[in-house]
Amino acid sequence: MAKSFDKEPFPSLRLVRANRESPDINGKFVLYWMTAARRTTWNFALERAVALAQEFHKPLFIVETLNSEQRWCSDRHHAFVLSGMADNKKFCEARDLRYYPFVESQRGETMELIEALAAHSCALVADDFPVKPFTQDATHVAQRIGVSMERVDSNGLLPMRATDRPFPTAYSFRRFLQKTLPDHLLNLPKAKPLARIKLPRLRGLPAEIRRNWPPTPSKLLSADTSALSRLPIDHNVVPARLVGGPSAAGKLLKQFLRRKLAAYPESRNHPDADGTSGLSPYLHLGHISAHEIFVELAKMQKWSPTDLSEKATGKREGWWGMSQASETFLDQLVTWRELGFNMCFNAKDYDKFDSLSDWAKKTLAEHESDRREYIYSSEELEQGRTHDRIWNAAQTQLVREGMLHNYMRMLWGKKILQWSAGPAEALETMIELNNKYALDGQDPNSYSGIFWILGRYDRPWGPERPIFGKIRYMSSDNTARKLKLHQYLDSFAPE
Ligand SMILES: Cc1cc2nc3c(=O)[nH]c(=O)nc-3n(C[C@H](O)[C@H](O)[C@H](O)COP(=O)(O)OP(=O)(O)OC[C@H]3O[C@@H](n4cnc5c(N)ncnc54)[C@H](O)[C@@H]3O)c2cc1C
What we know:
This protein is of the alpha/beta class. It has helices spanning 44-56, 75-94, 109-118, 132-144, 170-180, 207-212, 218-221, 225-229, 246-260, 264-267, 280-284, 290-300, 324-346, 358-366, 378-382, 389-401, 406-419, 423-437, 444-453, 476-482, 486-492, and strands at residues 15-17, 29-34, 60-66, 98-103, 121-127, 148-152. The chain folds into 3 domains: 8-154, Rossmann fold, CATH 3.40.50; 246-346, Alpha Horseshoe (Serine Threonine Protein Phosphatase 5, Tetratricopeptide repeat), CATH 1.25.40.80; 353-492, Orthogonal Bundle (DNA Cyclobutane Dipyrimidine Photolyase, subunit A, domain 3), CATH 1.10.579.10. It is built from 21 helices and 6 strands. Helix 3 runs parallel beside helix 4 (132-144). Flavin-adenine dinucleotide binds at residues 268, 276-280, 283-284, 332-333, 336-337, 340, 406, 409-410, 413, 434, 438, 440-441, 443, 445-446, 448-450, 452-453.
């Protein structure tokens, strides 16, 4: 293993050819289609596009797109992504780089635009992200264009293609990481792939592009409500207070490392302590990279790769050779987060009830017809109208802020299982509410969290209970006893 953060050659496991076409050296530019790693730093796909542009002596053209008229598109999600687009535009304009933000006003326009641009390009580089609408769109475009298209994985510290098997537990995945990660850990993306590059300038765009797919106007980029109101998206899910974008993400990371990390192991579970990073929406939308977070943490810890333990025991602490707080945080950021990517990448039915393990499906089926003291409709749940104040507070936080505290998320899901007509209905409700309201929704970890409620990554628990069977149970009373949540309840479910 290399001994420092020096740049290694571009990691081949990060890159896959998406079609069999060749590059067209007569094309006008190399096209980078940004959809998941929505940032200009620490981005393998951008780095690859720059390398191709240098190889072909062509300009680089970055197009960042945002789909509309798809399930869960809303003012909230759009506003968050648009703030990131505004950041990226500012960054590129300051460096005289060609960046084109595009927001669909109807379904299909993005793919048409990319196909039209590909016809003028030498080659296309796209992000790789393992959740369905993204994979489907990229596959569709790859089949329809006449130049080579590559997909590049900038998602986590472990390349998704480092293994082709989905791991059933965090323990087995952690053990695998401890054996495998040293080979990948130092193969970092460039922090500044656009710095000091010399590329020809792209003079103009074909007129048909601007005419048929005009770039996002500044009013929409600033998430102006009247501009958003013209899009075919859900206007009832209003923008959250949290502002999106790489710039906000960078500030949040600094604050977390400086002010919260030391107390993270103790405070992360208490909603009143506000002890977690709050980075998940930014990680989800690619406004920040897991590599950047890791490197900043490692620098703060004065960590070197020689600090890694040589023993892959699968234990949560002791492997990284960092402080306990850092290791607890890395276990979430790396083990738990990338476990979700591992599942979505390797199990195509990751979002289907049937993807649960046999023991979980069996026990849930055995208790499907158990009597339920409460059954709430999806509307009652959505509006937070249950008998349980803690649950209502969690649902209100989700609807109001687009965020939900991790511990509350677990309780939130367990109660949906308990109060739904059956486990399949519970699954549907969780997916709908999570992805509709959460800024980090539609992420691989939306599915790992939601399926964890139903037993994924877990073991059978006793005693066997009504409705849950051997699935881990959680109670609101116990949560109230264990957690500091007075202020939380006052904010989200005042008496
Ligand atoms: C029912 C349910 C639904 C969930 N839905 C989502 C979702 O839609 N999107 C999402 O990103 N996470 C989801 N999670 C996982 C987890 O709750 C969030 O990642 C975490 O609360 C994010 O807060 P944070 O950024 O402050 O985390 P921190 O504690 O600061 O952790 C740092 C990062 O590690 C990752 N992480 C932390 N906890 C987990 C976890 N349990 N599983 C996987 N990754 C984790 C996240 O990327 C997070 O940003 C869900 C969990 C459950 C139980």
